[in-house]
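Database export, one record per block. Field names are fixed; values are copied verbatim from the stored entry.
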Amino acid sequence: EHKKPEERKPVLKDTSKKVSNLSSDFIEPELADYIKKAMVKGMKKEQIREDLLKVGWKKEVVEKALGKYK
């Protein structure tokens, strides 16, 4: 029996964490990791953005994170 490789889903942001004391350049590690892996797989930024917004990431957080990657 062959198991399908599990596709990595965008992580849902834990909004209970306070990030107000972090630098404005800070990007959640799980968000950065997801974006890097998705881009390596050849996903377009538009698709990554859409996927992250669907699972509840804030638009400004997603835009800032995507802006770090060319």
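Remark 1: Residues 1-6, 15-21 have pLDDT under 50 and may be disordered.
Remark 2: The CA atoms of residues 7 and 38 lie 11 Å apart.
End of record.
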